[in-house]
Amino acid sequence: MLKKLRKLLISFLLLWIVANHSKLAADDLIDSATFTDSQTSSSNSAFNSLSFLQDRVSAQVTTRYLQDSNVFLRNYETEASILNESVLLGVKGGGLPDEPGLSYKLLYGGNYFYSMTDDFEYESPADHSFLSGFELRGAFTTLRLDANIEEQGGYSRSEPFAEGISSTFGEARNLGYQRKSLGLGVSRELNSSELGLRLSLDQYEYNVGNLITRSYEREKFAADLSWFYDPVFLAKTRIGIGLTAGKEEINQSVLGSQTFIAPSVRFRWSYSPKTAFAGWFGFDERFRDSDDFSETTPVYGLKGLWTAPTDTQFTIDITKQVYPSVYEIDDNVATKKFSVGARQAFDGGIEIGLRYFYEFSDYQPTQNAGALRSRTEDLQSLRLSLGKSLNLGTFDDAQVAIFYNQLVNESTKDYYDFERNQYGIQLKLSL
Question: I need a labelling partner for 402 at 20 to 30 A (CA). Which of 1, 232, 283, 303 fits?
Fold first, then answer.
C-alpha cells in the first residue's frame, strides 16, 4: 500500500526551518504536521514555517568560514578548514491569509560545503531542498497541500546552524538521507471550535556511511484527526484532543511494518505576537501483524516563545517521540529532547545568541533475539554567537557574526561516542 501511495509524491524541496523570532502564534508551533511527520521537532507545514518569506520574492545568502573537528564521527583526529555557502530563494503569492482565496509559497534551499584541507573531502558536498505550500481558503474551510523533497549529507553538519526553535530529531541528525513527503490537510471552523484532518506520506532513503554499512528505506503513512475548542473561561487559549494513526516500515527489516495509534490532549495559547506556547501529551501504541509485539510509550511536547520587556527573546522546545531505528534495524527508539535558546539585541546593531539542547535516546529491541543491541545515547549541544548588523545599502538586511558550536555524544556503546567542535565567522545578506 505504501509503495502505491509513494507514486503520488510531488517533487518540491525543503531546507531547515528559519523561524521569525518577533512574530509568532501558537498555531505556528504545533499543527497536525507535528504529529504525522516523524523525526522533526516542530511543524513542517509550509504555511506555518516559512516565515523567511516576508515579501513576494525573498533571497538570503550566508557565507561561513569555520574550523571543524571530527567531521567524520569515527575519525577522532580529523580537523578541517571548511567554507560553507547557504542559499535561500523564495517566492509567495495569492491573497491575504485572513481572506478567502488561493495562496502559495515556494522555497529553494542550498547548502554547499568546500574543504580547504588537502587530506579531507566531503563524500556528499551539497544539500538541496525544495519546500512548497498551497492553501485554498473558503469562508469556514481551508485546504492545504505541502510537497517537499530534501537531500541531506548527514554527519550533523547542517543542524547546528539552524537558527529557529526547530531542528532535526534523533537519528535523522547524523545520517545522510533523501526524503520525499506529501501532506494534505483540511480544517473547518465550527462554532467556538475547529476540526482538522491531515494525511501525510513520507519516504526516506538513508545513505551508506560511517554509521551504517548498507542503504535503508523507511516509509510512513499517517493520518491525524484533531478538534480544538475555545473555552470561555480561558482567553486566547484553545484546548483540544487528537488521534494519530498509521503504518511505518523499514523495508530491509524482516519483521515487517509497525502499526501505531497515538491519542493526545493538546493546547495552544497565543498571548500576544511575542508570546505563544503550545503543547501536547499522550501515548504511542505500536504493534505488528507478523508477531505478538506490542509497545506503549508516553509521548509529549511543549514549544514556546517569550519576549521579555528588555526585548530578550527566549525559546523552548521539549519533545518525546518514538520511531523505528535505522542504526539498530530491529529496535525502536524513544528520544527525549530539551532545548532552550535566548537572543538579546543591543544598541548599535549588536546581538548575542545562545542555544543549548540535550537529547536522550533509549534503544529497545522489538524482539527477544535483539536484546544485545539495547543501548542509550546522551547528546548535548551548545551554540554561542555574537553578531553585528551592517548597513550595506542595497541589502534589506546584513549581518556579520562569530560563532561556536559544540556537539557531544556519550553512548553505552563506545562506537557511537563523539565530540565535535566548530568555530568560525559568517556573513549573512538578505534581499
Answer: 303
Which residue, among 247, 262, 259, has the nearest Cα to 321 in the 3D structure? 262
Phi and psi dihedrals of 34, rounded to 5?
A: -60, -30
Q: List the one residue out of 166, 171, 167 whose CA is nearest residue 158.
A: 167
For the whole model, what pTM was predicted? Answer: 0.79
**CA 327 – CA 159 distance, rounded (Å):** 19
Nearest to 67 by CA among 49, 84, 47, 92: 84
Tell me which H or E stretch contains 356: strand 350-365
CA atoms of 286 and 245, how far apart (whole Å): 10
Question: Domain spans of the chain?
Answer: 2-430
CB 321 within 8 A of CB 334: yes
Q: Is 430 helix (H, G, I), strand (E, B) or coil?
A: strand
Beta bridge partners of 309: none
Tell me how far apart the alpha carbons of residues 282 and 343 are, in angstroms, rounded to a whole number: 32
**Coil, strand or helix at 161:** helix
Q: What is the pLDDT of residues 179-238, one digit of tens each?
A: 899 999 999 998 889 999 999 999 988 876 655 566 788 899 999 999 999 998 888 899
DSSP string for residues in 376-387: EEEEEEEEEEEE
Q: Can you tell me whether residue 314 is helix, strand or coil?
A: strand
168-191 pLDDT tens trace: 556 666 667 788 999 999 999 988
CA distance 264 to 279: 10
Residue type at 370? G
